[in-house]
Amino acid sequence: MKKYSLLFLLSIALVSCSPKKEDSAKQETAAAPAVDIEARLKELNIQLVEPSVPTANFVKTVRVGNLVYTSGHGPDKPEGGTLQGVVGGDLTIEQGQEAARLTGIALLSSLKKEIGDLSKVKRVVKVLGMVQSTPEFKDQPKVMNAFSDMMVAVFGEKGKHARSAVGMVALPGNIAVEIEMIVEVEE
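and the corresponding structure tokens:
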């Protein structure tokens, strides 16, 4: 009986002395070196654009304290228009990934317009990615990986985020991808 009690007490002591995952993640994010976002965008050949005007009675971004919530954005092409189609139908997974990257550019453009300087981003917190796809298509996360990889390429560790990637039978205007995100920024 005493052996079990001693082992139990030791295990509790070890658990209470171990750093929590949340604390480790905060330390890693806080310790991340400062990134020159404008230089990083140039290096990645990412050109931000003037955000398109909302098509109804809503705004592209809403700031509440140190959080910025974005409306769903779609894949705006540099030459105008949007990348449209159904992934797994008339679009390949690679075309879906390009749609996710274009949507990332649209989101970064709206975010910059809201906060003025992307170096104020403390963390990309949460992303919801919606992929217009056939019922048989099951690789929505692979499509969204292109977006997630872009956020990490731009922001480093601050770009890592919680994410959901879901398939949709239809998206507005037949766009291939729609993404919304929540971003923590400096106040």
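(Above: one complete record from the training split.) The domain at 35-185 is CATH 3.30.1330.40 (60s Ribosomal Protein L30; Chain: A;).
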